[in-house]
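Session log. Operator J.P. requested a structure for one protein chain; no other inputs attached. Running the standard single-chain path with token output.
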Amino acid sequence: MSIFGAIGIASSGMTVNRKWLDAVSDNLANVSTVRRTSEAAYQAKSVVVSEIPTSNGGGVQVTGIALGDAVGRVVSDPTNPLADAEGYVRQPDIDMSSQMTQLIMAQRGYQANAAVVDRAKATYEAALQIGRS
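Structure written below.
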């Protein structure tokens, strides 16, 4: 594998981690979204990833976004203006601790791939300096 291959693979990982961060931040932003019981709850987003074959350069790619359950949770909130006649509203079934864990994993993955790009760049620059000598 060349230095450029390492940069390409790491940058594909950075792209996947960025999309993962986007999905998790959407989920966290909508964790308290309330809807009428007759409507679907906010559906949590999950990133679907697949590998890129080494014959095509290697790495990973986002192949789609999977949506969570639209049923959510029905909770009692009679003071909410969206509450039905019995005082119930629908909220998404999103586990905050799970989302925070995913946020940390995506952030660390992004940082690790960025470090690989930086090291590969430094190696390439060192190789250019040797060629100039």
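Operator note: The two ends are 25 Å apart (CA to CA).
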